[in-house]
Design goal:
With 320 residues, the protein is an alpha/beta fold. Helix content is 54%, strand content 7%. The chain is built from 13 helices and five strands. It has helices spanning 24-32, 46-51, 63-69, 86-98, 119-133, 142-162, 165-186, 196-209, 212-215, 223-238, 253-266, 279-292, 297-315, and strands spanning 7-12, 35-38, 57-58, 75-79, 105-110. It has a five-stranded parallel sheet, with helices on both faces. Helix 2 links the parallel strand 2 (35-38) and strand 3. The radius of gyration is 30 Å and the shape is elongated.
C-alpha cells in the first residue's frame, strides 16, 4: 500500500504587521504540523513561534527533499521568507507537472494580511533610507523642494483633466512623496521637529473636528451645509475675524477671485463686486459668475486654452 503523500503548507506573513500577530488558522496549523521549516534564521516571526512552543528548523530544502519529508502523510509547514520562496515553489510546480511524483497536497496560507494603507509604511522606510544615503536627497531643504510641490500639484490637475487613470495614480504618488519628503526633513529640525505621524495625526484631528455631522451630533444633508460646518469650525480654530482670512493671495488670479466669491456666498454676505474699468474687473466678474454657477474658472479656462493650443497645432500642420 503506497504511503500517503502528506501535505505542504507555505505560510506567508506581512512584514508590515507586528511579528507574532498571526491568524488563528495559522497558529492551529503551526501547532499541528509534523515539521516547521524556515530558510531564514533571522526571520522576525521565529522568536514568537519558539516562544509559543513551536520548533522551527532552519532549513532550505529542495522541492524533492520537501516532498520526501511529507511521506507517510506528514504535514510540513514552510515559513516563507520575504521573497516568498520562488525557487521552492517553481521546483514543486516542475515536479507536479512531470507526472512522475505522487505530490503532497499543496496549500498557501496567509498568516497575516496588510491593512489598508500598509504600503505607506514602506514609503516612510524608503524615504528614511534615501534621506540618509542619497547625496542629493540628504541635502534638500523645505525651501529647495517648494517648487517641486507646485509642479507636482499642477501635474496632478493635468492628469485629472486628461482622465488618464495610470497617470493619475502616478501623479498622486508624486504628490504623496512631497508630503513624506518634507515630513522627513522636518524630523531633523533642531528647534521644532515633527514627523509624518504628527502630520497624519494633525489632519485626522482636523477632519474629525470639522465633520461634526459625521463624528458628532450635528446634521448636514447638503454640500452647502457641510461647507458651513467646515467654515464655522475653521474660524473657531484659527480665530479668524474675516471669511477672507486664510485665503492665499499668491494663487492664480481666477482661482483667487473664485475663492473669494465662494467664501462670500457660503457666509451669506451681500457684497457687490467692486466697480471699475479694465480687464481685471471683467475677469473678476466672470470668475464670480462661474463660481455661482458651480464652474471652476481656472479649469474652464484651461479647457479653452487647450482647445486653442490644438487649433494652433492644426494651423501648423501638426496633429491636434
Amino acid at each position: 500500500m503506497p504511503l500517503a503523500p502528506g501535505r505542504i503548507i507555505l505560510l506567508t506573513t506581512s512584514h508590515r504587521v507586528a511579528p507574532g500577530l498571526l491568524s488563528w488558522p495559522a497558529w492551529q496549523v503551526l501547532h499541528a504540523a509534523d515539521r516547521v521549516l524556515c530558510a531564514d534564521g533571522a526571520h522576525p516571526q521565529l522568536p514568537y513561534l519558539r516562544e509559543a512552543g513551536i520548533r522551527v528548523d532552519e532549513a532550505s530544502p529542495t522541492a524533492e527533499e520537501l516532498v520526501a519529508a511529507c511521506a507517510g502523510g506528514r504535514t510540513v509547514v514552510v515559513v516563507a521568507t520575504g521573497e516568498g520562496e520562488p525557487a521552492l515553489t517553481d521546483g514543486l510546480a516542475r515536479l507536479a507537472g512531470s507526472g512522475r511524483v505522487s505530490m503532497p497536497e499543496l496549500e498557501l496560507l496567509p498568516a497575516s494580511y496588510d491593512l489598508p494603507g500598509a504600503r505607506l509604511l514602506d514609503l516612510v522606510q524608503v524615504m528614511d533610507r534615501i534621506r540618509v544615503e542619497c547625496p542629493w536627497s540628504s541635502q534638500q531643504t523645505h525651501k529647495g523642494l517648494a517648487k517641486y510641490g507646485i509642479e507636482e500639484a499642477y501635474e496632478l490637475v493635468e492628469a485629472i483633466e486628461d482622465g488618464d487613470r495610470d497617470e493619475l495614480r502616478e501623479e498622486l504618488g508624486d504628490v504623496l512623496l512631497q508630503v513624506v519628503f518634507h515630513s522627513r526633513i522636518a524630523e531633523e529640525d533642531p528647534d521644532a521637529p515633527f514627523s509624518i505621524d504628527d502630520v497624519a495625526g494633525g489632519i485626522v484631528a482636523k477632519l474629525v473636528h470639522r465633520h461634526p455631522h459625521v463624528f458628532g451630533d450635528e446634521t448636514a444633508s447638503t454640500p452647502e451645509e457641510v461647507k458651513g460646518h467646515w467654515l464655522r469650525t475653521k474660524a473657531i480654530e484659527k480665530q479668524r475675524e474675516s471669511v477672507t482670512d486664510g485665503i492665499p493671495l499668491g494663487q492664480p488670479g481666477l482661482a483667487l477671485a473664485s475663492k473669494l466669491a465662494s467664501r462670500v456666498r457660503t457666509a451669506a454676505l451681500e457684497v457687490p463686486l467692486p466697480a471699475g474699468e479694465g480687464i481685471g474687473y471683467e475677469l473678476l466678474a466672470l470668475a464670480a459668475r462661474a463660481e455661482a454657477e458651480g464652474v471652476d474658472p481656472e479649469a474652464a479656462l484651461r479647457v479653452a486654452a487647450r482647445t486653442y493650443r490644438d487649433a494652433v497645432r492644426r494651423a501648423e500642420g501638426l496633429p491636434g
